[in-house]
Write a structure and sequence with these properties.
Length: about 675
């Protein structure tokens, strides 16, 4: 009973900790049960998951009976463990509290807290224990990944005497092909990190060519081991050299030579070891293949004292036309080959096999006993349906059956086996709640005008499912597993529920990318100018071929010009906007701007002056070249009366535009730098 209880509890913990993980594959565990019946007692364990909007509870119950049949037992019912999980608005696990009921009362005994980065990946986990009425820190785990999901570092700490103390830290470096080139390990010393080891990897055309590890004693490095790989014209290495460290040098200890046939089958592997004064033969493996490239003979030899090779073991394998396999292993006793063990596979049908392994009496090659003897049956999808293990002398026999739902997910298995003269029956059953495949990320970014089809591919489980959609907390009429979104950004949430009362809710944020905007069509006086800015994007393509964010609309003659720009944003959305500007002759119309701001001298060689006649606050001045590229930001947020002097001596000669932004207007003036 003691051993069986431990087995049952170990299965409970595996179910509990897999509860949230299965949600990532589309399922959340709602209910499971394990039932064990023997001639002595019955043990039943059930695990329940109760899901609400932001909290889930996992409860384990155990029922036991002694010396009675299941029909008449008085069941002893007590709850063992409970896990309370809390999630944020993006359905990310942020807290797990662990409770235990050992004395008839619930008591906290531990919890875990989780933090995430902007991409929704876990960056920190803090472990705490419950002491009296206070949560006490015990351990902290932190890690960081790059954009491709590869680790940059991870580290661990423990809390003691009022402070965090370092335990271990690992760091990774990668090359341009995202291959490991350097792994660093540090050991904690209070709040410091001390080097412990370095693992270096160097790559060539066909793969890794050098790998070596350096260990540290205090701050002093010393060589640990090294492996070098040599290739011919494929990714299969033909020679490996192994070294051991000797302070700051490398001592060669072994060489491995590999030989391949033209299609890549390994024909021979030879190992030589260095004895300190000479190379000696260590081992040699030779392989022989049939016409289907299956190994039929494997010969292992060991080096002898004369520099030659002596037989050690041999495997001979025979395949018939039905795919059945008969393999016999032999051992060399010094004079001849003795039978050692066998491994046979027989196909009872295309989806059922009988597999047996056992050992021989070496001298007579007669059967001595079995290691295993079982039959496996699969369905057309390759899923295990039936597993029968035959009992022989000194071993137990039994069978297992497995059942799957319409999605192929295992939801029940039955076990029956004989042990210690009795019969034991196990039953494991699970009810899974399907989750939303579509919500495997928290934020969807959509190009303006494109549609987004969110599909909740939810199936399986024993109950009928229903769906409810909301947009920005407003109920939508959609009741199907999918919804099409066009041009409406914001928060979308979906609740899936079943007829048993279980339900699960998840949310996503749909972001509609902005469009470029050059403004409305307009007119300008001849020789006046206007800076066109479509907004912030990754790339720009203007009608005149320029690629900056800004362009200056300007003409010395009466004309009507079309300006357009095509932009590409950070997620690849491509859009175009245009504006028509008419340049007209402003005859008899005074330019009021000249009464407010003037620039001089023009042309200018060193200092450009702005006459601020109004005395109003000038927020900023920016100078652009003739193709709209920003050159200088002179100053910001100052109130200037009289003249403002700008040093333009550093600008190359050419035509420039200065944009002056005051508290009530934006003015552009052209000047020439000599």
């Amino acid at each position: 009973m003691y051993k069986k209880s431990l087995l049952a509890l170990s299965i409970i913990f595996s179910i509990l900790f897999l509860t949230r993980a299965t949600a990532q594959s589309g399922y959340t565990l709602l209910d499971s049960c394990i039932e064990v019946e023997t001639g002595f007692d019955t043990l039943i364990t059930r695990t329940h998951l109760i899901i609400t909007d932001s909290v889930s509870y996992t409860i384990s119950e155990q029922y036991t009976s002694w010396n009675q049949t299941w029909d008449t037992i008085a069941v002893s019912n007590y709850i063992l463990y409970s896990y309370k999980n809390t999630y944020d608005s993006l359905n990310r696990l942020i807290e797990t509290k662990r409770l235990m009921n050992s004395t008839g009362q619930w008591q906290y005994y531990g919890r875990s807290l989780f933090s995430y980065d902007s991409l929704g990946r876990i960056t920190d986990s803090i472990q705490q224990i419950y002491s009296g009425n206070t949560w006490v820190d015990t351990l902290q785990f932190s890690w960081q990944k790059d954009a491709s999901g590869k680790f940059i570092f991870n580290e661990s700490r423990f809390f003691s005497v009022g402070q965090w103390n370092n335990i271990q830290r690992q760091e990774w470096n990668y090359d341009s092909l995202q291959r490991d080139t350097l792994q660093l390990v540090f050991i904690g010393n209070g709040n410091q990190w001390l080097p412990e080891s370095e693992l270096h990897m160097v790559y060539g055309t066909f793969g890794i060519v050098d790998s070596f590890k350096v260990e540290y004693t205090g701050s002093n490095p010393f060589n640990d081991y090294r492996m070098q790989f040599f290739y011919q014209s494929t990714d299969q290495d033909t020679m490996e050299i192994i070294y051991t460290g000797n302070v700051n040098q490398w001592d060669t200890t072994a060489i491995i030579r590999n030989t391949f046939d033209p299609i890549g089958n390994l024909l021979e592997e030879i190992v030589f070891n260095y004895s300190g004064s000479a190379w000696v033969n260590t081992s040699r493996k030779s392989l022989t293949y049939d016409a289907s490239n299956r190994i039929i003979i494997q010969l292992i030899e060991q080096g002898d004292s004369l520099g030659g090779w002596g037989p050690l073991s041999r495997d001979s394998t025979f395949y018939d036309t039905l795919g059945n396999v008969n393999q016999t292993s032999f051992a060399w006793n010094g004079s001849y080959w003795e039978c050692y063990e066998f491994h046979n596979i027989e196909y009872l049908s295309p989806t059922s096999i009988h597999e047996v392994t056992g050992m021989f009496d070496g001298a007579t090659c007669s059967l001595m006993g079995y290691y295993s003897d079982f039959i496996k049956s699969y369905d057309s999808e390759g899923r295990l349906l039936y597993f029968e293990y035959n009992g022989h002398a000194g071993s137990s026999g039994g069978f297992e059956r497995y059942q799957y739902d319409s999605t192929g997910f295992l939801y029940q298995s039955n076990h029956s086996f004989s042990s210690m003269g009795g019969l034991t029956n196990d039953e494991y059953c699970v009810h899974y709640m399907p989750l939303l495949y579509a919500f495997n990320q928290n934020i969807f970014t959509v190009c303006n005008g494109d549609s987004l089809n969110i599909i909740a591919t939810s199936s399986g489980g024993a109950y009928v499912l229903s769906y409810e959609w909301e947009y920005n907390n407003q109920l939508l009429p959609d009741t199907t597993p999918s919804i099409i979104i066009i041009g409406a950004g914001g928060w979308y949430s979906m609740m899936v529920s079943d007829t048993a009362g279980n339900y699960y809710r998840d949310s996503i944020l749909v972001v509609i990318q902005p469009l470029p905007n050059l403004g409305n069509d307009t007119s300008l006086c001849i020789s006046n100018s206007l800076i066109l800015d479509p907004g912030i994007f990754s790339n720009y393509q203007w009608q005149n071929g320029s690629s900056g964010q800004f362009i200056t609309a300007f003409s010395n003659t009466q004309d009507t010009l079309l300006y357009w720009v095509t932009t590409t944003d950070s997620v690849g959305c491509i859009n175009t906007d245009s504006v028509v500007i008419a340049f007209i002759v402003c005859v008899g119309i005074d330019d009021p701007l000249n009464e407010i701001l003037k620039i001089h001298p023009n042309p200018v060689s060193r200092s450009l002056y702005i006459s601020n006649i109004s005395g109003k606050e000038i927020q900023s001045t920016i100078i652009f070249n003739s193709i709209g590229e920003k050159q200088v930001v002179e100053f910001k947020n100052q109130t200037v009366s009289g003249n403002l002097e700008l040093d333009v001596s550093g600008l190359p000669s050419g035509i420039y535009f200065i944009e002056i932004i005051s508290e009530d207007r934006r003015i552009v003036r052209k000047f020439v730098k000599q």
